[in-house]
Amino acid sequence: MSAPRLILASASPRRVALLAQIGITADAVDAADIDESVFGNERPADHAARLAWAKASIVAQRHPGAVVLGADTVVAVGRRILPKAESDAQVRACLELVSGRRHDVLTAVTVVDAAGNPHHRMSTTTVIFKRLSAAEIDAYVTSGEGLGKAGGYAIQGRAEALVRRVQGSWSGVVGLPLFETRTLLSGAGIDV
After folding, report:
1. Residue 44: which residues within 8 A CB-CB, separation 6 or more?
2. Which residue windows are coiled coil (predicted)?
């Protein structure tokens, strides 16, 4: 019996690269187009879990019998969810907020197995940035690297030199915690 097809419910090149890092190649990439707005007083973990589940379940409906992998990453300072930065001003505001302090990066992973059953895992990582000078923030904003990134930064790029400590899953901060993902995919019959 052959392994089921694996569909990645994400257009993120970082997630594709992280899967490749552990020897997994999705048979197809099919991003779900969903509203990622935060509901009222939604907690960061609940928000990430809801979005990962929504992405995976929508794409699973389009690919019956396949295993579908969905994920969502949220950067939070306390209960405050930082945006996926869409402007230089948002990147700057995020960096000013995380400068010199700890914050959490939560990545929820949902795998819908070939029978249509969802399975979930959550990775929570604490990231501590150094106290950033105005010049460091200006240089990072100018680089453009923080645009489109949750929390306004990409740890796998220039921002890594600004991080004092990571407690938890580095790959989870990038966007796909590999330990949790591998466990879920293995349980769904994907050769890992």
Report:
1. 74, 76, 79, 81, 104, 106
2. none
Task: Give the Cα separation of 84 and 87 in Å (integer).
Answer: 9
Domains of the chain and any CATH numbers:
6-187 (3.90.950.10)
71 neighbors 101 (Cβ within 8 angstroms): no
Active-site residues: which are they? 72
Strand partners, 166: 127
Residue type, 96: E
Residues 137, 96: contact at Cβ < 8 Å? yes
Strand segments (E) across 14-160: 28-29, 67-77, 80-81, 102-112, 118-129
Residues 149-160 as b/e (b if ≥16 CB within 10 A, e otherwise) read: bbbbbbbbeebe
Write the pLDDT tens digit of every residue in 28-49. 999 998 989 899 889 999 999 9
